[in-house]
TrEMBL record:
Key words of the record: Hydrolase
BP terms from Gene Ontology: dGTP catabolic process
Protein name: Deoxyguanosinetriphosphate triphosphohydrolase-like protein
Phosphoprotein keyword on record: no
HAMAP family: dGTPase_type2
InterPro entries: dGTPase, dGTPase-like, dNTPase_2, HD/PDEase_dom, HD_domain, PHydrolase_assoc_dom
Domain HD: 65-201
Organism: Inhella proteolytica
């Protein structure tokens, strides 16, 4: 029976397998099983109370790491379907890609990396792999979720050379080997990385407008958004409310990104002549946008960085979040952490802090220091 997958898509019947061998499930293939394990794990549930841009207590309608992950999964599946890639593997990678993210978003990651500077540093992609390989404890037979190689490979989107060498020493030829050999991951993994960026470009504009930090004049100054607005308005028979105009424009942004990526990737696949997953790994990066749309999205990301991510109101919360996590790191380094799963004290503290939600971290800091850094939590 035809699966509908292209020859260069990852096939669960040809997976490189799990670290601990398991009997196949009767009702699901291996990639579907991975996706289900991710959805049911504790780290996935905690994403609902972790910051995307705005801290969890700042409003109920802003994106969190969980809603972001769901949006990435939706976009990635749509792209995978059009490219005849494995949708279940794509969804599993997308849902798991932020499992290792800290509370307080990138402020938390930067703080933990600074705190861990003399202990190997902190990378949230590597931490996501630690979550599924080690920190989740749900099975008697093995630590972690024991996911397939292809899922784990996609979760480890980026990795420093030093950490790649350490991982490869522990698992020779494993998920870190490609960083040392200069090879590419599967097309499903490549696709998820770009779906992540496209999703946050759209929803960060939405959250920025909802917060009042971006107004119509701001986002209409951005050339790519302004052009999309002109396209939307030219197709309407009458005026649109500002909110409907925003949502219609952001849908156009997503549609433009998805369509361009699919068409540009199809052209690269044809030109490269790839036929198998091994061909994909040996080729240059194949999933991507046209040069025009890639440039437009780079400009949009620069706009968001300048106007939203470094807005004084966001920065003020960032400074408080960094102090909070640095304080907790110092305290736990002295006292230890509950149920430590790592013998090295600093890494055990980093694991514990990275697993916290925003509101749990705020409460713990107030309990341990007596300080109230945030007015509402």
């Amino acid at each position: 029976m035809s699966t509908g997958w292209a020859s260069y898509a990852c096939n669960p019947q040809h997976t490189r397998g799990r670290r601990v061998a398991e009997q196949a499930a009767w009702d699901r293939d291996d990639f579907q099983r991975d996706r289900d394990r991710i959805v049911h794990c504790s780290a996935f549930r905690r994403l609902v109370y972790k910051t995307q841009v705005f801290l969890n207590h700042e409003g109920d309608l802003f994106r969190t790491r969980l809603t972001h992950s769901l949006e990435v999964a939706q976009l990635a599946r749509s792209m995978a379907r059009n490219l005849q890639l494995n949708e279940d593997l794509t969804e599993a990678i997308a849902l798991a890609h932020d499992l290792g993210h800290t509370p307080f978003g990138h402020a938390g990651q930067d703080t933990l990396n600074a705190c861990m500077a003399t202990h190997g540093g902190f990378e949230h992609n590597l931490q996501s792999l630690r979550v599924v390989d080690w920190l989740e404890r749900r099975y008697a037979e093995f630590p972690g979720l024991n996911l397939c190689f292809e899922t784990r490979e996609g979760i480890l989107k980026h990795c420093s050379a030093q950490n790649a060498q350490l991982l490869d020493a522990q698992e020779p030829g494993g998920v870190a080997a490609r960083f040392l050999a200069g090879r590419q991951p599967s097309l499903e993994a490549q696709l998820c990385n770009l779906a992540d960026e496209l999703a946050y470009c759209a929803h960060d504009v939405d959250d920025g407008v909802r917060s009042g930090l971006l107004n119509a004049e701001d986002w209409l100054e951005q050339p790519f958004l302004a052009e999309l607005v002109r396209q939307v308005e030219s197709e309407q028979k009458g005026p649109l409310s500002s909110r409907v105009l925003l949502y219609t424009t952001l849908r156009r942004l997503l549609r433009t990104g998805v369509q361009d990526l699919v068409l540009a990737t199809q052209q690269r696949l044809q030109s490269a002549g790839v036929l198998t997953v091994d061909d994909v790994r040996a080729a240059p990066m194949l999933v991507g946008y046209s040069a025009e749309v890639a440039g437009q999205l780079r400009d949009l990301k620069r706009f968001l960085f300048a106007r939203l991510y470094r807005h004084p109101q966001v920065e003020s919360q960032r400074v408080l979040a960094q102090k909070l996590l640095a304080d907790l790191f110092a305290i736990y380094l002295q006292t230890g952490v509950p149920e430590a799963r790592e013998a090295e004290p600093a890494r055990a503290v980093a694991d514990y802090l990275a697993g916290m939600t925003d509101r749990f971290a705020v409460r713990e800091h107030q309990r341990l220091t007596g300080e109230r850094l945030f007015e509402a939590a």
